C-alpha cells in the first residue's frame, strides 16, 4: 500500500510541478547515515511564499530532510545524500553551485540551540557582517536590534547585548538562534522545532514572525505541535520511518487526510 | 644557489683540539685585521669528513684532529677534488689517570691496568675470566679499593691510545700476551685483539661524553679512577689526584721528554686550495705554529699542550705550504 | 633595486591593489545596481593576492636561478691556465664574486663611472690592495682573466637584477591590472581568494611530507653504504653492540633498541600519570589562580636545557638510587641506570602530557560534565568515565609527543643511563639508547667511511621505521576508541 | 511509609553507605593525587631552578681591577713615529709587560707587603687585558706615553675567590693560583683596586677561549638564538597551523591523509640530530646556504618544531564541538570563514600551548646544530637581520653545552648563568603566548 | 503589590509546611549570575508523591530554580545561590551533606539533551554502574532495557544499542536522557522540558512514565505546555521575572488563579 500511495503522490507532484510556483523541489531524496538509510526517496516541494510544516514521529527523518535542503548534511562525515534538489530550478548539488551562497539563501535554525560562544550582539551580527549587509556600525546595530525584536528577544536582552550568548536560558538561546538566522534575510528559512523551548507567548511571537516572513520568503518548519502546524502552515508534509507519507494543504491534512497513518498520527493514535 | 663571499676562516673537528684552536682563534682575531675564525667542534672524524667534502666557500678550511688522518679519508678527499692538504702537528696531548683528591695515592704500571680491566687475565698460569675486584687484588701495594675505571668510549681517539699504550703494553708486560698467543695458536693479531678486550661487568665504564662528565662521575663515585687529558687535569688539580705511570708523574716536561708513556700527537689539516682564497688563512696557520702561540712558553703550553720539539720544522713546512705526502 | 626593496614595493602594490579592488567593486556595483557577490574586502583581497603571490614566487625562483646561470656563464670565461694547481674552478669563482662585490665600493671611492669598467679602462694594477682598502679581502693576487670574469660577473648580475626588478614588478602590475579589470559584481571574489588560501594550506601540509622525504633521502644512501660494509643480518639480529676503534666491531641494534624502549617506557611511566593528573587537576579542580600560575610554570620544565637534567641525574638521582635502593636490595651498584635516566626524563616530558591534555580536557563541553554530575557521579568518576574518553584522541597525541621526545633525548641518557649497550631486565643497570649512539658514532674520532660511523645512519633509519610502526598502532587505537561529542 | 523513607534516607544522605564512602574515598584519593602531581611538577621545577640559580647567579657579578697603566712608548712604538701600521705590529703579547710593570709600580707605591714577584702578581689580571689595551692604543695612538686608567677583568681564579669557589685551601692544591696571590688580591681589594660589581659584559660579550672564563659572555649566543627563534616562529607557527587546518578540516578522509597524519606524528619522534643531518644535506650541501648560520639553524629547528605545533593544533581543532561549525555554516559562512572566525579562536589555547612547548624545545636544542656547524666558537657578532641571518653565530644552548665541557671550573658558573639567560629568554618569548592563551580559554 | 502577594504566599507556605509532607523545600532561594539576580527569594516546596509543574515565560528562572534543587548551579562558575533548601528536612547546602549523594537521589533531565559520546547502552548503563545498582551483566541489561522502555525509546534503538548516542535524532536524544536519569531510580526527578522535542505519542509515553513514577517518587517538571501541566501535575508553580508568582493545586491554578499574572499567562495574554 505504501508503494502505491507514494507512486500516486509522485505522479500528482509531477503533474503539479508545471503549474505551481515552487521555490525548492526535492526529487527522490534519500539519505544514508553509513549503512543505515534514514530517508527513502522523498519527493517534496517548497512553494514560494508558503509555510510548509513537516510533521511526524520523533526519528522519522524530518531534521534529516531539512538538512538536505541547505546541504548541512555535507558536514556529517558518514552521511550520504542522493536524489535531486533544486532551488529556483537550479540543482543545489551542481558542482557549479556555491554551497555557501546556497546556505546564505536558505537559512537554518537548528533543533538544538547552538549560539556561538560570543556575545549576544556578535551572535546576531555575524551573519550580516560576512554577507556585507550593513553599511556601518549603526546599520549593523539596526539589523541586530530588529532581528532580536522579530524573535521576541529584544526586551529581555537589550541591556546585556555584550554578555555571552551561551549564558542565556534555553528558550532565550532558541530565540537568539532564530534572530541570527533572520538577520541575514534568507529567501528560505528552515526551522527545526523553533518553539520547542518557548512559552506560549514567545511562541506566538515567533509564529507572528513566520507569518510576516511568509509575505516575502518561503518557510519550512518542523513541529511536533499539530496546533502549531495548523496555525502557521499552508502546506503540511507527514513523515514516517523515513518515508514521506503525504503532503497536502494543511487544512485538508488536518481534516481529511488521505493516508491512514496521517490520520492516526494527528489523532495521536500511534507511535 | 651561491652564497655571499665568506670572509672568516671555518674550522671544524676534534673537541680535544678545540680549546687550543679557540685560544689561537681568539688571539688571531685580536691581532689581525681578519675576523675571528669560527671553530666548530663535532669530533675529529666529522671534521675530516667536512674537510673532504670538496673545495669551495661552503666547505671548511681546516679540520682539527686528535688522531692522524686515515688513508680512506685521504681517498675521499681526492675523490672530491681536495688534492692537497697540509698536515700540521701542533703538539702532544698527555693522557693521565686521576682519582678523587681525597682518595689514596696510586702508582700504576700499564700491567696493573691490564690486570684490572682485561676480560681475560693469567692467574696461576691459567687464562681465566678476570677475577680482580680490588686494586689490591692485583698488587698488594696498591690501595685496597674497588676497581672502577672511567675510560673514554670507543668513539674517542683517546681510547685508541689508551688501548694501545696502556692495555696492550700492560698485556705484554704481565705476560698475558704470551698466554693469549698460545691460546690463539700463535696468531699475533688475534692475541692483540684479545688483549684489548675489556671486561663488561660494569667495572670499566665507557664515557661517551667529555672530561667534565668523567669528573662528575668521580664526584658521584669516589672510588672511580678516570682518564683525562693533561690540560683538563691541570685545571682541576684541586679536585683530582693524579696517578703515576711507571713511576713517572705526568707533566708537560715528562711528556715532552718521552718519559711519561701515554700521549698522542694532535693535528690540524689545512685545505691548501683555500689558502689564497680565504683571507687570513695562511696567516692563521702560521700564527698557530708560531713560537708565540705553540712554543713552550706560549699560551697553549700554559694551558696544557705539550709543545712539539720539532716545531721549527713545522713552521718551515707551513711557510712553504708543503702538502702531506702519502701516509707511512 | 635590492631584493628587500622589491619585496617592499610588491607589498605596497598589493596594499594599493587591495584598496583599488575594493573601491572598484563598490563602484561597479553602485553603477550597475547589482549586489556584490562577496564582501568588498574579498575583491581587494583577490587583487592583493594576484599582485603579491605570483610576483614573490617568481622573485624567489629568480633569486635561486640567477646565480646558477650567471655562474655557469662566467665559469666558462676562466681559462684552465689561471686555475692554481690543486685548486678548483669553484674557488676561483669565490675570487670572482669577491672582486665583483668589491668593485662597487672601488668605483664609488674613486668616483669612477661604469664606463671605465665596461670599456676595460680601469686600472688593473694593484687590484688586491685597492679592494683591501675598501674592506674586501682577497686571498692572493688575481690574474687578469679572473678580473675580467669578475667584471662580466658584475655586469651580468647587474643586468640580471635589473631584469628581475622589471619582470617581477611587471608581473605584479600585469596580474594586478588583470584582476582589477576582472572585477565585476558577479565575480565570486570570496571563492577566488579562499581557493588561493586553500592552496596555501595544502602547500603547508606538504612540507611535512617533504621533510620526511628529505630525512629518508639524507639517511638512505649512507645506510646503503653501511650495509655494503656490514651484514644486515648482524645489524638487525645481533645482541652485541661493541664498536671498536680499529674496526672489527659488533654492531647489533637489539641492545640499543631494548635500551630505547626501556628508558622511554620508564619515562612515560613517570610522565603519563603525573602529567595526566596535573592536566586533570588544573582543568577540573584547580582555581583559576593556581591554574594560571602552575601551567606555565610546569611548561618551563620542557625548556630547561637537558644538560641540567643530565647533571641532576648523574650527581643526585643516580647515586641516590644506587645507595638507597639498588645496593641494599642487591640489584647492582651502578650509579647510572635505566631508572635514573627514565625518572629524570619523565620529569622533563611532564609538560608535554600535562599542558596539551589540559587544553583538550578543558575543551570538552560543560554539558558532558553536567550530564554526569546530575546522575550522581563524583567528579573523579566523571573525569575517568566521561571526560577522558571524550578527550582521548588529544591525550594520545600528547602522550605520543612525549614519547617522541623521550626517544629523541640524548644528554639525559648519556649522563643518567650511561653509554654501555646492554640487554638486561634490571632497571638498575646502565644501558643506552639508539639516539645516544647516533650522536656518539656521528661525532666521534673514527673515520667517516667506516661502518662505525655509518652505522649512525642505519640506526636513524631503523628508528624512523620503528617509530612509524608504533605510530600506526597508535592511530589504530585512537580510531577504535574515539568518542566524538555532540 | 514516607516517614520511614525519610528517616532512613536522611541518615544515608549524611553518611552514605559503605559503597558511597568508598567512592568518596576514591574521589579524595584522586583529588589528592592530582594535587600531588601538581606539587611534584612544581617541586621539580623549584628544585631545578634552585640548583641553576644557586650555581649560576654569581656569573652576573664580576671582579674588576681598576688601575693606571703607563702606555710605554719604548714598548708600543719603538720607531717613535706613531704610524698605525707599525703600531699594529705590536701584538697582544707585547702589551702584557705594560700590565706587569704598572701593577708592580702600584704595589710599590702603595707599600703592599706582598712578596710576590711581578710575574705571578700580573696573573691576577685577566688574559683579556692586553687585548683591551691594544684596542685602546690603536684607536688612540696619541695616548702613547700617557698613563691611563683602565678597568680590567680580574682573572677567573681571583673572581672565583670572591664568589667562594676558590679558597685558600683549594689554592694550595691548585697549580693555577697560589695562596700568596689570593693574599695579594685581598690587599688590592682593601686598596680599592679590586672591586666586584654587576656584570653587564656577561650578557653582551662574546664567548672567550678556555684561558679566559672571566671574559666569556653570551652576547653572540643571545643574538644567534634570537635570530633562530625569529625564523622558527615566523615559519613553524603559520605553516603548522595552516597544515593542521587543512588536514583537520579540509582534507578528505582517506589513506593518504592517514599517511600524512602518521607521518607527522612520526616526525615528532625523529631524534633532533637527524634533523641536523637533514639540514646539512638539504640546506648547506644542496641549497648552498652558509655553515654556522642562524638561517640554517632556524630552518632546521622550524622543521623540528613543526610536528609539535601540528599535533597540538590538530588536537585542539578536533576538540571544538561540531555544533559551532554547523552554526556558522547555517548562517551562510563559508567553511573557511567558519574555521577562521570560530573554530581557530576556540582552538587557540591548544595552538598556543603547542607553540610554547615547541619553542621551548627548539630554544634548548643543541644536537641538530652540531651538524650544521653552529656548535662552535664564534666571537664576532652577526650583523643585523636580514644579512645577519647568514653570518656565523652561536646559540644559547650551544654556549651551555660548550662551557660545560671546558676544563676550567669557572665555566661551570658561566654555563649555569647562560641557562638562566636561556630561561629568561624563554619566559619573555612565551609571555605573550601565555597571556593570550589565558584570554582565549573558555568553556562552552 | 508583588511584595504583598509574596509575603502572603510565604506565610501560607509556612503554615502549610508543618502539616504537609514535603520532600524538598526551598526557602528564600535567590540565585545570582555574577551581578545579575535571576531568582528572588523563592519559597517553594516539593511534595512527596506529587508532580509539581513549573511554568512561566522563557527566561523567568525555571531552569535556574530546578538546578538549585540538586545543586547543579555549583558547576556554573559565576552562579551564587542563597537561601535554604532541604531534602527530607536536611539542608542540602550543609557542609556535611554529600552533593554526590544528593544528586543520586535528586536526578535531572536537562533542557538541552546532552548524551555522552558513548553508545546508547553505555549512556543508560553509566548511572547504574557508578552506583552499583546492577549485580551483573544481565542485571544491567535488564535495567537498560526497562529504562529505555520507560522512556519510549526501546523499540527504536533496540537494534542499535551499541551505536553512538550522539547519532540519534533530537527527540531520541531527549528520551535517551530521560532513560539515563530514570535508570538510577532517584527519589526526586527534575525534568526540564522533557517533551519539548517529542511528538504527541512520545509525549504521551513520557507523561505515562511520569504518572507511574509518581507513586514512588516526587517529580518536578518544567513545561511550556499548559495542557501538559494540567495533565500531569498536581501542583503548579508560576514564575515570572525571577519571582515565584504563586503556587497552588493545579486544578485551582488553571481555573481560578490568585494572581493576575498567572491568569494572563495561562490565557496567553502577556509576555
Ligand atoms: N549561566 C548563566 N549566566 C548568566 N545568566 C544566566 C545563566 N543562565 C541563565 N541566566 C539568566 O537567568 C535568567 C533565568 O534563566 P533560566 O535558564 O532559569 O530561565 P528559564 O525559566 O529556564 O527559561 P527557558 O524557559 O527559556 O528555559 C535568564 O534571564 C537567563 O538569561
Ligand atoms: N548523525 C547520525 N548518524 C546516524 N544516524 C542518525 C544521525 N542523525 C540522525 N540519525 C538517525 O536518522 C533517523 C532520522 O533522524 P532525524 O534527526 O531526521 O529525525 P527527526 O525526524 O528529526 O526526529 P526528532 O523529531 O526526534 O528530531 C533517526 O533514526 C536517527 O536515529
Ligand atoms: Mg529532529
Ligand atoms: Mg530553561
Ligand atoms: O673530539 P675528539 O675527536 O678529539 O675526540
Automatic annotation (TrEMBL), chains A, E:
UniProt keyword terms in alphabetical order: ATP-binding, Nucleotide-binding, Phosphate transport, Transport
Domain of life, source organism: Bacteria
GO MF entry, a single one: ATP binding
Entry annotated with the keyword Repeat: no
Domain ABC transporter stretches: 24-266
Keyword Transcription belongs to the record: no
InterPro entries according to UniProt: AAA+_ATPase (IPR003593), ABC_transporter-like_ATP-bd (IPR003439), ABC_transporter-like_CS (IPR017871), P-loop_NTPase (IPR027417), PstB-like (IPR005670)
NCBIfam families attached to this UniProt entry: 3a0107s01c2
Family that this chain belongs to: Belongs to the ABC transporter superfamily.
Protein name stated in the entry: Phosphate transport system ATP-binding protein
Species for this entry: Pseudorhizobium tarimense
Automatic annotation (TrEMBL), chain C:
SUPFAM superfamilies per the UniProt record, alphabetical: MetI-like
Domain ABC transmembrane type-1: 257-474
Chief location of this protein within or outside the cell: membrane
Cited Pfam families: BPD_transp_1 (PF00528), DUF3708 (PF12501)
Gene3D superfamilies, A to Z: MetI-like
Compartment(s) of residence: Cell inner membrane; Cell membrane
Leader sequence segment: none
Top-rank taxon: Bacteria
Topology in the lipid bilayer: Multi-pass membrane protein
CDD domains: TM_PBP2 (cd06261)
Keywords recorded for this protein, A-Z: Cell inner membrane, Cell membrane, Membrane, Phosphate transport, Transmembrane, Transmembrane helix, Transport
Function comment: Part of the binding-protein-dependent transport system for phosphate; probably responsible for the translocation of the substrate across the membrane.
Family of this protein: Belongs to the binding-protein-dependent transport system permease family. CysTW subfamily.
Protein name: Phosphate transport system permease protein
TrEMBL record, chain D:
Annotated stretches, region: Disordered: 1-20
A Pfam family of this chain: BPD_transp_1
Keywords annotated in UniProt: Cell membrane, Membrane, Transmembrane, Transmembrane helix, Transport
Classification via InterPro entries: DUF3333, MetI-like, MetI-like_sf, Phosphate_PstA
KW Membrane (keyword) present: yes
Subcellular location, record wording: Cell inner membrane; Cell membrane
Family of this protein: Belongs to the binding-protein-dependent transport system permease family. CysTW subfamily.
Protein name as annotated: Phosphate transport system permease protein PstA
Species whose genome carries this gene: Pseudorhizobium tarimense
Amino acid at each position: 500500500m505504501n508503494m502505491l500511495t507514494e507512486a500516486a503522490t509522485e505522479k500528482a507532484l509531477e503533474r503539479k510541478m508545471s503549474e505551481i510556483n515552487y521555490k525548492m523541489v526535492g526529487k527522490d531524496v534519500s539519505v544514508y547515515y553509513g549503512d543505515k538509510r534514514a530517508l527513502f526517496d522523498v519527493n517534496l516541494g517548497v512553494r514560494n511564499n508558503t509555510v510548509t510544516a513537516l510533521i511526524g514521529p520523533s526519528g522519522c527523518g524530518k531534521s534529516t530532510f531539512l538538512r538536505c535542503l541547505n546541504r548541512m548534511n555535507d558536514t556529517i562525515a558518514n552521511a550520504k545524500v542522493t536524489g535531486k534538489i533544486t532551488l529556483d530550478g537550479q540543482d543545489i548539488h551542481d558542482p557549479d553551485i556555491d554551497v555557501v551562497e546556497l546556505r546564505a539563501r536558505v537559512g537554518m535554525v537548528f533543533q538544538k540551540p547552538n549560539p556561538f560562544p560570543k556575545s549576544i550582539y556578535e551572535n546576531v551580527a555575524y551573519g550580516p557582517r560576512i554577507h556585507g549587509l550593513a553599511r556601518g556600525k549603526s546599520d549593523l546595530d539596526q539589523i541586530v536590534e530588529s532581528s532580536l525584536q522579530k524573535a521576541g528577544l529584544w526586551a529581555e536582552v537589550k541591556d546585556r547585548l555584550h554578555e555571552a550568548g551561551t549564558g542565556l536560558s534555553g528558550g532565550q538561546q532558541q530565540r537568539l538562534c532564530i534572530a541570527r538566522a533572520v538577520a541575514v534575510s534568507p529567501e528560505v528559512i528552515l526551522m527545526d522545532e523553533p518553539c520547542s523551548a518557548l512559552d506560549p507567548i514567545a511562541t506566538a511571537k515567533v509564529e507572528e514572525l513566520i507569518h510576516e516572513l511568509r509575505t516575502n520568503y518561503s518557510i519550512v518548519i518542523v513541529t511536533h505541535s499539530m496546533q502549531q502546524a495548523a496555525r502557521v502552515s499552508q502546506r503540511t508534509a507527514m513523515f514516517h520511518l523515513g518515508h514521506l507519507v503525504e503532503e497536502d494543504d494543511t487544512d485538508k491534512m488536518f481534516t481529511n487526510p488521505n493516508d491512514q497513518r496521517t490520520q492516526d498520527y494527528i489523532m495521536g493514535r500511534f507511535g | 644557489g651561491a652564497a655571499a663571499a665568506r670572509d672568516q676562516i671555518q674550522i671544524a673537528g676534534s673537541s680535544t683540539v678545540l680549546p687550543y684552536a679557540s685560544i689561537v682563534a681568539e688571539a688571531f682575531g685580536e691581532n689581525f685585521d681578519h675576523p675571528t675564525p669560527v671553530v666548530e667542534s663535532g669530533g675529529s672524524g666529522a671534521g675530516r669528513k667536512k674537510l673532504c667534502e670538496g673545495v669551495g666557500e661552503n666547505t671548511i678550511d681546516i679540520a682539527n684532529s686528535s688522531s692522524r688522518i686515515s688513508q680512506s679519508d685521504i681517498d675521499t678527499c681526492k675523490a672530491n677534488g681536495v688534492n692537497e692538504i697540509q698536515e700540521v702537528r701542533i703538539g702532544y696531548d698527555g693522557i693521565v689517570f686521576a682519582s678523587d683528591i681525597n682518595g689514596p695515592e696510586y702508582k700504576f704500571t700499564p700491567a696493573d691496568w691490564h690486570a684490572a680491566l682485561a676480560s681475560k687475565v693469567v692467574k696461576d698460569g691459567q687464562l681465566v675470566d678476570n677475577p680482580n675486584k680490588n686494586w689490591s687484588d692485583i698488587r698488594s701495594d696498591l690501595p685496597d679499593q674497588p676497581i672502577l675505571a672511567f675510560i673514554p668510549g670507543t668513539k674517542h681517539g683517546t681510547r685508541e691510545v689508551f688501548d694501545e699504550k696502556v692495555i696492550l703494553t700492560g698485556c705484554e708486560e704481565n705476560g698475558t700476551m704470551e698466554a693469549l698467543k698460545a691460546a690463539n695458536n700463535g696468531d699475533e693479531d688475534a692475541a692483540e685483539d684479545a688483549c684489548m678486550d675489556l671486561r663488561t661487568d660494569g667495572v670499566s665504564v665507557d664515557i661517551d661524553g667529555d672530561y667534565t662528565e668523567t669528573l662528575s662521575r668521580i664526584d658521584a663515585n669516589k672510588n672511580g679512577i678516570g682518564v683525562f687529558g693533561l690540560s683538563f687535569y691541570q685545571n682541576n688539580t684541586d679536585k683530582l689526584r693524579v696517578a703515576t705511570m711507571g713511576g713517572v708523574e705526568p707533566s708537560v716536561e715528562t711528556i715532552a721528554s718521552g718519559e711519561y708513556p701515554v700521549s698522542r700527537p694532535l693535528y690540524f689539516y689545512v685545505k691548501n686550495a683555500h689558502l689564497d682564497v680565504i683571507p687570513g688563512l695562511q696567516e692563521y696557520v702560521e700564527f698557530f705554529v708560531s713560537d708565540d702561540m705553540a712554543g713552550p712558553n706560549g699560551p697553549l703550553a700554559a694551558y696544557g699542550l705539550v709543545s712539539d720539539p720539532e716545531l721549527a720544522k713545522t713552521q718551515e713546512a707551513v711557510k712553504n705550504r708543503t702538502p702531506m705526502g702519502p701516509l707511512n | 633595486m635590492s631584493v628587500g626593496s622589491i619585496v617592499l614595493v610588491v607589498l605596497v602594490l598589493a596594499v594599493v591593489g587591495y584598496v583599488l579592488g575594493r573601491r572598484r567593486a563598490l563602484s561597479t556595483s553602485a553603477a550597475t545596481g547589482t549586489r556584490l557577490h562577496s564582501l568588498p574586502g574579498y575583491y581587494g583581497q583577490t587583487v592583493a593576492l594576484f599582485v603579491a603571490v605570483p610576483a614573490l614566487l617568481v622573485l624567489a625562483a629568480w633569486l635561486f636561478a640567477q646565480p646558477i646561470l650567471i655562474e655557469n656563464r662566467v665559469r666558462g670565461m676562466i681559462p684552465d691556465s689561471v686555475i692554481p694547481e690543486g685548486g678548483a674552478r669553484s674557488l676561483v669563482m669565490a675570487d670572482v664574486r669577491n672582486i665583483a662585490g668589491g668593485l662597487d665600493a672601488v668605483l664609488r671611492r674613486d668616483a669612477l663611472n661604469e664606463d671605465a669598467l665596461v670599456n676595460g679602462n680601469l686600472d688593473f694594477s694593484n687590484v688586491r690592495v685597492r679592494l683591501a682598502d675598501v674592506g674586501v679581502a682577497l686571498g692572493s693576487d688575481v690574474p687578469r682573466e679572473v678580473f675580467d670574469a669578475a667584471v662580466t660577473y658584475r655586469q651580468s648580475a647587474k643586468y640580471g637584477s635589473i631584469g628581475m626588478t622589471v619582470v617581477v614588478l611587471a608581473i605584479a602590475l600585469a596580474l594586478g591590472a588583470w584582476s582589477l579589470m576582472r572585477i565585476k559584481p558577479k565575480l565570486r571574489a570570496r571563492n577566488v581568494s579562499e581557493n588561493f588560501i586553500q592552496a596555501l594550506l595544502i602547500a603547508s601540509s606538504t612540507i611535512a611530507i617533504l621533510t620526511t622525504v628529505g630525512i629518508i633521502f639524507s639517511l638512505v644512501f649512507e645506510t646503503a653504504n653501511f650495509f655494503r660494509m656490514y651484514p644486515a643480518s648482524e645489524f638487525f639480529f645481533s645482541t652485541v653492540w661493541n664498536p671498536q676503534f680499529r674496526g672489527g666491531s659488533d654492531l647489533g641494534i637489539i641492545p640499543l633498541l631494548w635500551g630505547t624502549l626501556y628508558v622511554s617506557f620508564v619515562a612515560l611511566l613517570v610522565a603519563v600519570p603525573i602529567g595526566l593528573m596535573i592536566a586533570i587537576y588544573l582543568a577540573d579542580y584547580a582555581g583559576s589562580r593556581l591554574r594560571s600560575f602552575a601551567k606555565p610554570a610546569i611548561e618551563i620544565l620542557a625548556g630547561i636545557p637537558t644538560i641540567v637534567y643530565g647533571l641532576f641525574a648523574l650527581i643526585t638521582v643516580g647515586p641516590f638510587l644506587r645507595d638507597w635502593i639498588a645496593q641494599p636490595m642487591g640489584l647492582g651498584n651502578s650509579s647510572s641506570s635505566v631508572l635514573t635516566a627514565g625518572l629524570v626524563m619523565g620529569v622533563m616530558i611532564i609538560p608535554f602530557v600535562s599542558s596539551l591534555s589540559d587544553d583538550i580536557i578543558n575543551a570538552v563541553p560543560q554539558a558532558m560534565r553536567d550530564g554526569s554530575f546530575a546522575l550522581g557521579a563524583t567528579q573523579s568518576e566523571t573525569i575517568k568515565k566521561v571526560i577522558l574518553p571524550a578527550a582521548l584522541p588529544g591525550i594520545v597525541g600528547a602522550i605520543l609527543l612525549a614519547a617522541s621526545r623521550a626517544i629523541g633525548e640524548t644528554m639525559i641518557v648519556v649522563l643518567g643511563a650511561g653509554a654501555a649497550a646492554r640487554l638486561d631486565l634490571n632497571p638498575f643497570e646502565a644501558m643506552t639508547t639508539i639516539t645516544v649512539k647516533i650522536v656518539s658514532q656521528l661525532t666521534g674520532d673514527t673515520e667517516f667511511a667506516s661502518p662505525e660511523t655509518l652505522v649512525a645512519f642505519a640506526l636513524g633509519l631503523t628508528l624512523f621505521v620503528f617509530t612509524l610502526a608504533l605510530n600506526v598502532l597508535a592511530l589504530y587505537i585512537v580510531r577504535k576508541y574515539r568518542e566524538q561529542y555532540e | 511509609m514516607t516517614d520511614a523513607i525519610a528517616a532512613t534516607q536522611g541518615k544515608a544522605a549524611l553518611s552514605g553507605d559503605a559503597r558511597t564512602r568508598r567512592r568518596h574515598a576514591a574521589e579524595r584519593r584522586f583529588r589528592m593525587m592530582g594535587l600531588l602531581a601538581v606539587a611534584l611538577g612544581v617541586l621539580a621545577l623549584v628544585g631545578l631552578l634552585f640548583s641553576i640559580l644557586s650555581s649560576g647567579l654569581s656569573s652576573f657579578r664580576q671582579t674588576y681591577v681598576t688601575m693606571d697603566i703607563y702606555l710605554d712608548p719604548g714598548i708600543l712604538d719603538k720607531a717613535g713615529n706613531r704610524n698605525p701600521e707599525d703600531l699594529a705590529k705590536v701584538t697582544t703579547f707585547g702589551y702584557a709587560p705594560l700590565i706587569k710593570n704598572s701593577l708592580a709600580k702600584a704595589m710599590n707605591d702603595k707599600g703592599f707587603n706582598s712578596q710576590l714577584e711581578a710575574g705571578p702578581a700580573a696573573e691576577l689580571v685577566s688574559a683579556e687585558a692586553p687585548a683591551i689595551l691594544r684596542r685602546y692604543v690603536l684607536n688612540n695612538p696619541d695616548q702613547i706615553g700617557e698613563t691611563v686608567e683602565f678597568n680590567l677583568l680580574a682573572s677567573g681564579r681571583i673572581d672565583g675567590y670572591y664568589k667562594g669557589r676558590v679558597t685558600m685551601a683549594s689554592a694550595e692544591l691548585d697549580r693555577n693560583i697560589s695562596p700568596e696571590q689570593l693574599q695579594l688580591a685581598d690587599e688590592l681589594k682593601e686598596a680599592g683596586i679590586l672591586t666586584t660589581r654587576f656584570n653587564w659584559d656577561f650578557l653582551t660579550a662574546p664567548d672567550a677561549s678556555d684561558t679566559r672564563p672571566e671574559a666569556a659572555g653570551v652576547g653572540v649566543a643571545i643574538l644567534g638564538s634570537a635570530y633562530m627563534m625569529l625564523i622558527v616562529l615566523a615559519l613553524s607557527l603559520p605553516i603548522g597551523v595552516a597544515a593542521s587546518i587543512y588536514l583537520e578540516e579540509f582534507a578528505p578522509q582517506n589513506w593518504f591523509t592517514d599517511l600524512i597524519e602518521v607521518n607527522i606524528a612520526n616526525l615528532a619522534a625523529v631524534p633532533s640530530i637527524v634533523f641536523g643531518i637533514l639540514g646539512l644535506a638539504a640546506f648547506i650541501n644542496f641549497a648552498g646556504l652558509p655553515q654556522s648560520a642562524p638561517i640554517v639553524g632556524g630552518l632546521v629547528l622550524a622543521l623540528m618544531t613543526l610536528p609539535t605545533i601540528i599535533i597540538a593544533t590538530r588536537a585542539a581543532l578536533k576538540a571544538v564541538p561540531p555544533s559551532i561549525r554547523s552554526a556558522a555554516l547555517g548562517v551562510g559562512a563559508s567553511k573557511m570563514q567558519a574555521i577562521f572566525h570560530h573554530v581557530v579562536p576556540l582552538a587557540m589555547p591548544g595552538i598556543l600551548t603547542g607553540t610554547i612547548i615547541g619553542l621551548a624545545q627548539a630554544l634548548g636544542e643543541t644536537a641538530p646544530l652540531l651538524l650544521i656547524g653552529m656548535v662552535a666558537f664564534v666571537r664576532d657578532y652577526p650583523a643585523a637581520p636580514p644579512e645577519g641571518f647568514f653570518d656565523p653565530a652561536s646559540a644559547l644552548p650551544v654556549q651551555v653545552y660548550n662551557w660545560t665541557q671546558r676544563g676550567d671550573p669557572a665555566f661551570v658558573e658561566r654555563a649555569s648563568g647562560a641557562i638562566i639567560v636561556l630561561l629568561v629568554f624563554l619566559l619573555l618569548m612565551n609571555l605573550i603566548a601565555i597571556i593570550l592563551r589565558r584570554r582565549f580559554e573558555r568553556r562552552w
